[in-house]
């Protein structure tokens, strides 16, 4: 199956034309959106940018989910170019596990902000759960970026 995927016309287009560069560019923008907005939200939750109301943070999550969709589509395209390599790449496995954890963390982070931001605003402080999710979201998505770069540069390193 992997050989068939690697020999498909789509996979060949990615490897032998502008497909790789285009997918990598979209992937970078997706990463920037997801990590950048998670960092911005986390910085507010952790006490910076006090002029931004907590309740307004939930308006940024549709953009984060758009970034996740860009990552998914472009990442799938990049994966199609060398599926046999990525299936055996331990660094890629770690990255993909972190992507799944990032999505789960972001879902909980969004739900927490939506349900608790009013209380945070009136109390003038964020709950421990809010600060923990903020830190977790930034750490996990930063790990995705790091492992993605290591996947590109280290090849099939087994962890």
What is the approximate shape?
elongated
**Total E-strand runs:** 0
Low-pLDDT stretches are none
Biggest sheet layout: none
Question: Main attributes?
Answer:
mainly alpha; 7 helices
Topology:
Elements lengths: L1 H6 L1 H8 L2 H27 L15 H21 L1 H5 L2 H34 L4 H27 L5
Helix pairs in contact: 2-3, 2-4, 3-4, 3-7, 6-7
Structure at a glance:
The protein is mainly α. The protein contains seven helices and no strands. The chain has helices at residues 2-7, 9-16, 19-45, 61-81, 83-87, 90-123, 128-154.
Written description of the protein model:
The structure is a single chain. The longest helix has 34 residues, at 90-123. Helix 2 (9-16) packs across helix 3 and helix 6 (90-123) packs antiparallel against helix 7 (128-154). The protein is built from seven helices and no strands. The chain is 81% helix and 0% strand. By secondary structure, the chain is an all-alpha fold.
């Amino acid at each position: 199956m992997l050989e068939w995927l690697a020999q498909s016309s789509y996979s060949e287009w990615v490897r032998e034309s502008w497909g790789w560069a285009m997918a990598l560019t979209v992937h970078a923008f997706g990463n920037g959106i997801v990590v950048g907005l998670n960092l911005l939200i986390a910085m507010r939750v952790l006490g910076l940018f006090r002029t931004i109301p907590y309740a307004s943070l939930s308006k940024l999550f549709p953009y984060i989910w758009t970034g996740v969709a860009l990552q998914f589509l472009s990442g799938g395209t990049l994966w199609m170019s060398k599926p046999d390599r990525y299936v055996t790449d331990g660094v890629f496995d770690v990255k993909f596990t972190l992507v799944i954890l990032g999505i789960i963390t972001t879902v909980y982070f969004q739900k927490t902000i939506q349900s608790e931001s009013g209380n945070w605003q009136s109390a003038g402080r964020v709950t421990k759960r809010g600060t923990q999710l903020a830190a977790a979201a930034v750490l996990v998505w930063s790990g995705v970026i790091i492992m993605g770069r290591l996947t590109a540069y280290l090849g099939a390193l087994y962890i």
